[in-house]
Amino acid sequence: MRRILTLTLMAVLTAPAMAWAAEAGAGDLPKAFAFLAAGIGFGLAAGLCGLGQGRAAGSAVDAMARQPGAIARIQTAMLLGLAFIESLVLFVFVIAVILLFVKS
Q: What angle do CA 51, 97, 5 make, to 5 degrees?
């Protein structure tokens, strides 16, 4: 069920890029592919990073429940891991913006 929901969410996130690609027209094919690549890449990155963050946070909460004495260390490691996971989405966002606004 989660996979279906995840794939549906990623499809919804890429739909605006497909609409922009259709607006670009057949005469501007590289720009249309840039819109598609940006939308699909950002949709995949956002969806999969969301799953990774959920799994990381869930595992950290489970570890905190099992070892209450190590909460500070677990929380620090979790926040650092979440920052690294979120940075992937930000990098993909920057690449998507570059793809969309570079003159071809």
A: 25
Q: Are 40 and 17 in contact (CB under 8 A)?
A: yes
Going from the first residue of the chain to its last (104 residues), give the mean pLDDT of each consecutive group of 10, the final group possibly shorter.
76 66 62 77 84 91 93 92 88 81 65
Considering the four listed CATH numbers 3.10.300.10, 3.10.20.30, 3.30.465.10, 1.20.20.10, the one that applies to the domain covering 2-101 is 1.20.20.10
Q: Which two tokens stand for residue 71?
A: 């909460």
Which is it for the CA torsion 60, 66, 72, 73, positive or negative? Answer: negative
Residues 6+ apart with CB under 8 A from 30: 104
Q: State the first-to-last Cα distance of the chain, in angstroms, to the nearest integer.
A: 41
pTM value? 0.62
Residue 70, classed as helix, strand or coil, is helix
User: How many angstroms separate the CA atoms of 6 and 65, rounded?
Assistant: 28
